[in-house]
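Before the break, one more example. Copy the sequence into your notebook; we will annotate it together after we see the structure.
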Amino acid sequence: MNHYSILVILFINIFTCNVSGNDINIYEVDSENISQLIKRADQLLDTAPDSSLKIAEQLLKTFNKNTNSFDYCKVLYIKARANSYLENYNKALSDFQLCLSNPYFINDSLLLADLKFNIARCYDCTSDINTAIQIYLEAFKLYQKKKDIYGQAKVLQNIGIIESDKRRDSLAIAYYKKSLELYKFLKNEPKQAAILQNIGVVYLNQENYPKTIEYYNKALKIFISVNDPEDIASVENNLGIAYERLLKFQEALKHYDKALLYFKKINSRTGLAYIHDNLASLYRRLNKNETAITHYKLSIMYADSVQILDLLAFVNEEMASLLEEMGNYQGSLKYYKAANQIEDSISNEESKKRLAEAEALFHGELKDFEIQKKEIQLKAQMRENSIYLVALILLIFMFCFLVWAYRKKVLAENQIRKHQEILEDEVKQRTNELKLEMFERIAAEEADKLKTAFLANMSHEIRTPMNAILAFSTFLKDPDISGTQRNEYVKYINSCSISLLRLIDDILDTAKIEARQLKLTESACYVNSVLNELFVYFQNHKKCKEEDIVLQVKTDCIARNYIFSTDVTRLRQIFTNLLDNAFKFTEKGKIEFGFEIKDGFFQFYVSDTGSGIPKDKTELVFKRFGQVNDNSSKVYKGTGLGLSISKNLTELLGGKMWLESLEEKGTCFYFTIPANNYEVSELIKTSNDEYSLPQKSIAWKNFTILVAEDDDLNYKLIQIALNKTQANIIRAYNGEEVLSLLSENNNIHGVLMDIQMPVLDGYETTRRLKSKHPEIFVIAQTAFAMSDDKDKCLKAGCDDYISKPIDIDELHRKLGCHFEKLQIKEDS
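Here is what the structure looks like once it is written out:
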């Protein structure tokens, strides 16, 4: 070996000694090595999150704390997700919030959506529900913007879980079904099965076990098709719980045994711990105590092997309780002591964690000390080897050149890989866009079909009464018809006009419900009065008069009066729609209605002995314009809006609606309304008509009425209606003319004010009129029939309100009431 060789070896040893003293090994900062470790940590997230967390924490030590690099962001995000999977939610949130302000996420909408979804999930798991929902919705909007259907589906699923936990079951099921629809579109069968299980849990909480079992079986079928033994075992276990609650113990045992086989197959000690506990409880209920003891012991063994301390404590207590029942007090005491020791260890778990953290910090300080010690040794060694400095600089220069060349190569590879990822993302995005376009096109076609059906139905429903109105109006022109025929024709025209008005009211109610503009007005509701009123009204139905149908109200419901707070008008509207429906589909038999109080709700019902509804069509009747075709020769009239409106009104009032039906046997509709502070009292008479007057002849010759109406036909109608009252009538065509006539005539007592007039409308005219003539009463008459319009009229100063088409009897009552008040003032 020559002198040159010795010198090179010496240089290499010196260089190696110097480099080994640094905090970061050269291989730790190698770009390719870091990329491989990041990829490895990402792969371990789902299967081994604890290992993924360790790798991420080691990688973060190699980065500057203030760095904003691409790799740093990826590692921080992996660390946060690992902590989330390990249920360290506060730590995860801290790192997620750091990611939130990083340009890497801000500039990528899809990454930002995933980040916000993970943040919302952490808040969800730490019970900050309001914050969770808010951030879920932010994530949902970003997924919508990027047209990511899978992202939208998982957000809807998680919000459904929140609503289920809050026991808002109808909302939860609505979110679940929308999520299920999207998963079906994506053909993601495992996710579909998970949603079906979620819906089953909702029905389990409601103790609706048939529905629970139905959805669990749907989920089980999918899990079997994709050969997922773990989830198959989970569903079989849940089915066992449902059947055990139904007291069907043999059926429950069958499903528990299947779950046991699958848990054994996949060697899931956690699953085996829980299933043996369930089997023990079931055998205990069957009085097979020895078999129960065997399963309790197996549950204790498996729970101890995986350290499920809360389950371990619970099973020990159950074992002790069973032995105590059997008279084995010594064995019972042994298991009670074991349970207490486990509970004590659980309570000390937090102090153990703090001790572990303190030890970790101490070991960290020791490592820092060792690093400082090595740095001192390094400096001493560098001073001793100063003679070789020039050679060392040359070697470092050569090494840096090699590193620079290597980094250039890695950078080029990274750029190529990133470009490939961008292309793949663009292809994936375009694929999702095409799927979404197809989905939207199908929805648009369905909406077009619905619109066509609606227009055809509305054309029929409007033209039918209009045909009768026009025809009988023409017949009235015949001078040769008798008085009896004339009265009959007027009756037909009036009946068809009422049908048209109800059709318009249904369309308006549907529009207001769709626009979420329907307002409820709560007041004291006398249930007895409402039921009696409905009974008297429907007793006059043609089918009742002809004795084809017997109408009954439940006797218990009218024996005493129940009073509670709700919107009386909407309650009456729901009942009227259901009774109309019952009469429509019942030719002969009986119709009964009434209520009972269950779990803080009034449960109302309307039952009939009509044609019934097929089981597969029960959901259709509650959809807008939905009608069940019974394939008979009978054609039923209607818009298909009544039941849809009734169901929506019930939900707005805080309840729900459903039906039970058997074909050819009849149907019973149920709906519930919260029994808000209800009281029970003896029967009292109540009146809903605030303008009722004693019957007497109308003679208002001493009073003058100013009619503000720009439409000649409407004015003619009012003039004819008031002719027999002998009142003096003056007409004004617009608001300015009203004010002018009032200034010239001091004998005007009241004004019938049209709201929609030229020059000056009814609102402004009323304000000016009341400022100068407060003693003159004003009754607004308008074709706008929304609840807000009445409020606007009264706020403008009107004393009363009547909607068009004008009910003549109602007009007489309201005018009579105000004239009577004026007469009382004059007499006093």
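Residues 389-476 form the longest helix (88 residues). The radius of gyration is 40 Å. Try to locate both features in your own notes.
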